[in-house]
Amino acid sequence: MISILFVCHGNICRSTMAQSVMTHLVNKQNLSACFLIESAATSREEIGNPPHHGTVGKLRREGIPVVPHRAVQMIRQDYDRYDYLIGMDSANIRNMTSIAGGDPQGKIFKLGFFSGQREDIADPWYTGNFEDTYRDVLAGCQGLLKYCMEQE
User: Fold this and answer.
1) 46-76: per-residue pLDDT in tens?
2) What is the pLDDT of residues 12-53, one digit of tens each?
């Protein structure tokens, strides 16, 4: 089983979008039994809240089921629980590394790494642009799935 934790600041926009997109991609390949896919926040600001309405709306327009979710915060033990901890931007990576107490096993990645994009995935909470965020999340998740399958 390959375990993935997507992480962003609040766990209501980008990481929940990535969780739903990756789950959808895995299900389309009939690989759901091979993956554990979850998401979390680096902050406590949105704990308990559902996905942002902009994320929900964009996923619905794309025909992607929204994974039932309430925002949770990443904890130190998540580093041991997951094979891949995927942040959306440089601040997420810094905070994830701090929460985990380092990254000695090289499990923490920025999502854009898997699509060849070195830029951060923009936070639609601030930009209001769920279209661009979705495009970048989709490309990252497609690249991550390919990477995972090549590693097995």
Assistant:
1) 999 999 999 999 999 999 999 999 999 999 9
2) 999 999 999 999 999 999 999 999 999 999 999 999 999 999
| Residue 8 annotated to the active site | yes
Q: CB-hemisphere CA count at 13 Å for 90?
A: 4
What's the whole-model pTM score? Answer: 0.97
CB atoms within 10 A of CB 27: 13
- Catalytically annotated residue among 78, 89, 120, 123: 123
pLDDT for the residue numbered 117: 83
**Annotated catalytic residue, options 8, 13, 141, 148:** 8
Residues contacting residue 126 through CB under 8 Å, at least 6 positions apart: none
Kindly report the CA angle at 83 between 59 and 47, in degrees rounded to 5?
A: 50
Identify the residue whose tokens are 């923009």. 122
A 10 A CB-CB count for 81 gives 12
The answer to whether 120 is a known catalytic residue is no
Catalytic site residue 148? no
Instruction: Using the predicted structure, report yes or no on whether residue 118 has a pLDDT greater than 90.
Output: no
Task: Identify any residues that bridge with 37 across adjacent strands, giving them in sequence order.
Answer: 4
Task: For each of the domains in the chain, give its residue range(s) and CATH number, in order of start.
Answer: 2-151 (3.40.50.2300)
